[in-house]
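request received
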Amino acid sequence: MDHARAATSATSPPAPFPLAAADLCVKCGLCLPHCPTYLDSQSEADSPRGRIMLMQGLATGRIAISDSLEAHLDGCLGCRACEKACPAGVPYGALIDAGREQLAAQRPDRLKPTRRLSAVLSRASLRALVRVALWAYSASGLQMLVRRSGVLGRGRLARLESTLPRVALRSSPAVRATGAERGTVAIFIGCIGDIAEREVANDLARLLAACGFRAEITAAQTCCGAIDQHAGHAPQARRLAQQNVAAFGSGHAVAILPLATGCAATLLDYPRLVADGGQPFAARVQDPIAFLLAHGDALRFKPSPLRVAIHDPCTQSHVIGQGDALRRLLARIPGLEAVTLDATARCCGAAGTHFVTAPEAADRLLQPKLEAAARLAPQVIVSGNIGCSLHLAGGLLRAGRGVTPEVLHPVRLLARCLA
Ligand code: SF4
Ligand code: SF4
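response:
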């Protein structure tokens, strides 16, 4: 399928806004102290309750679309801390996606950047081009030169450059399971993961092999659709979800393990996006660290005297859960001290593309994490979400406090510590 063409030709009307779900909100305000944007601005319109009222007004025609309304809805990080705190079971994540779909129906131009990004990220050939370009940029020494010379100054371009990942060109090797083979597991690599986290996929395959599982990465998989879904570009999100459901089929893989928690949260939402096959697909999606803990009695780790700070992505804390699985696995590594980077579990500001599109707001949210890193002085920070990792690593680089901790996917750290 030509996804770029499909993305630019999407003209189907938006689904009706789910007013019944929004009406579950009793306006109690218990979610407000959990909302990072409300805490930042102290404005009701930047709170979950306020945004729900704005979306209800827009959907019923009581409020007209305006730049201000758009800014309040776009300011939502999609962290879903409010959803977890809500006693009435308001499905806030689904509401904000639907609210932005209504915005896009009235202001289609707002989707232009998302369409362009999606057209690149949903095509394997274009992802490969980006991967090679990023690899050449760092491997040639140009990146070091740019950073040391300060030629980009201190503006937006320099900030964007500081968040670029270091990428490897190695493809995924076939890794044989050790001992009696217990089954096949599919790795969902994701679009940014395909560009920047192939080594994480290799390491996950090694860890799975040590547990007795064979890992496979199907080439037909594509972007999970999160970028489109959260921008209100629902038709493209559904197309990508359908492609992934078909790619993984009913298959022989006993589980589908996404590398990024952001992807995992979207894959778990596939029953809402794909009527035919979304439910059985989502039922096979598992957190890779929790899978390793559940099946990893055979994993043996060498002594690793490291202080490791754990950054819990919002999608782990508020959607998937199972954050204790990583702590329990790290506790099995002799000499390793694991600490929590920021116990408030508030969003770091990465929030999909937010750290690129709203850098000032994203950096305000990142500041407590940088201060915690300076206080705890870990050698390594682990994060299971690529967006958080890029945002954290960029912030640490710009803070420039001497030796900065390495920011790693937890799978990379576990694989390094394998005996
Ligand atoms: S979203 Fe939930 S917690 Fe927040 S005001 Fe509505 S009912 Fe209360
Ligand atoms: S998803 Fe996060 S940022 Fe958005 S309203 Fe809820 S708590 Fe606030």
